[in-house]
Amino acid sequence: MTIGSRTQETDFGKLIAVEGIDGSGKSTQVHLLEQWLRHEKLRVFKTEWNSSEVVKEITSKGKKKGTLTPTTFSLLHATDFADRYERNILPLLHAGYWVLSDRYVYTAYARDAVRGCHPEWIRRLYSFAKKPDIVFYFQVPVDIAVNRILAGRPKLKYYEAGMDLSLSNDIYESYRIFQSRITKIYDSLVRSDGLIVIDGSLAIEEQQRIVREQAARLLADGYAQGPK
Amino acid sequence: MKFYGRGLPYLGAPEVKGRLIVIEGPDASGRSTQISMLTEKLEAEGHAVVNTGLKRSELISQGIINAKRSLGTGKRTLSLLYAADFADQLENKIIPALRSGYLVLADRYIYTLIARDVVRGMDRKWCHDLFGFAVVPDLIFSLEVSPPELVHRVFQRQSTLDFYEAGMDMGIAEEMYSSFVKYQRLIATEFRRMQARYGMIPVKGERPPLEVEAELESRILNFLAAQTK
A110-130: per-residue pLDDT in tens? Predict the structure, then answer.
């Protein structure tokens, strides 16, 4: 079933997405989930936001030149997503894989809306995407996530910090405001889109225990289990 | 400035003095000839003119070429890349020109992009909604030339038909000539569908260029005159 329509498709795989702001710990969690599923001898494929070759060059050129508008930025991310969706996600789902998506359409709902694109337009844009079986949202207080990021990697990039939004002249302050606005939208998606909230301030092991418990429910559904 | 859908909310409601005029039509329908003649005439009349077209964004056009070369690029991916190219030109060229009071002559607009996707089986509604950020033009002309006539015009310039303009990716015919004619008929049908919805003015393109130009010019000048009244 796609997000925008009610047409039933015969997908046999499972689609799990993880969402959350930078520093929420979602990549660590999806990595551990992947390791577990592989250990269980399931066929797994992991895909990451903004990783397709199609737009890589364009995005970096646009960032350098500073000519990216909220709409072009949004469309380039949609292009990246569509490319991974058409090449990997959809065919692999049809083949029965467990597809793990580090960020999914909800990242666009949050970031593009913060940048000023109309929320309904963004939703229509991504309406072709399949609704995941589970979306985990790693919820952390903005300060904790921001401090995690700033501790490890003090150089922030212009767009990453949301400097294009003119929130503040200070790049760190801009980053904080940007991340807190994104958090607000994520929080609102919990109810509207059925995101499963994981408290990102819990111990890594504890978070993973909850993640696996939820994922195990899909296993119990019976289908889409790879060869054991 | 009016938009087809949700527009560009972060721009607010910009005041616009310029006008946007679109010339649509298939390859070899005479678009570029008309645009250069019209530009000359309109500038002679004292209007400052800016030309735009598809796949001309400095940022993205090369990316489109690369994506088309790369095997396995899906149709939705391409369609979004074209939309990004269009958005880049709309925001960095068309809108600034309209704000400064230019007459913008666009060599094709969103309609070609929509038609191409729809004949390839993409959801019509999705394609229309995608371009909800596009500015509604003041005038839209659609140059109509029959597909067999188009083929001859193309062959007068070069001895081959363009792969995509012939719809060769669609597998609708065994060889290129038939594929081109079939594909262009499908596109023309889609354009006729869009005529009422978007208020497109069909213009008979199988006439001497000067005659076509005279019609376009008088329609444009009449429109501009009516605006200043």
Answer: 999 999 999 999 999 999 999
ipTM > 0.85 (yes/no) = yes
Distance from the A54 Cα atom to the nearest Cα atom in chain B, whole angstroms: 6
Chain A contact set for B75 (CB, 8 A): 86
* pTM of the predicted model as reported, rounded to 2 decimal places: 0.92
- Tell me if B142 sits within 8 A of B200, measured CB to CB: yes
Per-domain boundaries in chain B: 9-215
Give the separation between CA B219 and CA B221, rounded to whole angstroms: 6
CA distances to A130, A135, A140 from A81, rounded to whole Å, are 12, 17, 25
Q: How many domains does chain A have?
A: 1
Whether residue A50 is contained in a domain is answered as yes
Q: Is A65 on the interface with B (CB under 8 A)?
A: yes
**CB within 8 Å: A70 and B10:** yes
Q: Please tell me the distance from the alpha carbon of residue A157 to that of residue A142, in angstroms, as a whole number.
A: 18
What domain range includes position A83? Answer: 14-139+194-220
Q: What is the CATH number of domain B9-215?
A: 3.40.50.300
The CATH number given to whatever domain includes residue A94 is 3.40.50.300
Contacts of A75 in chain B (CB under 8 A): 80, 83-84, 87
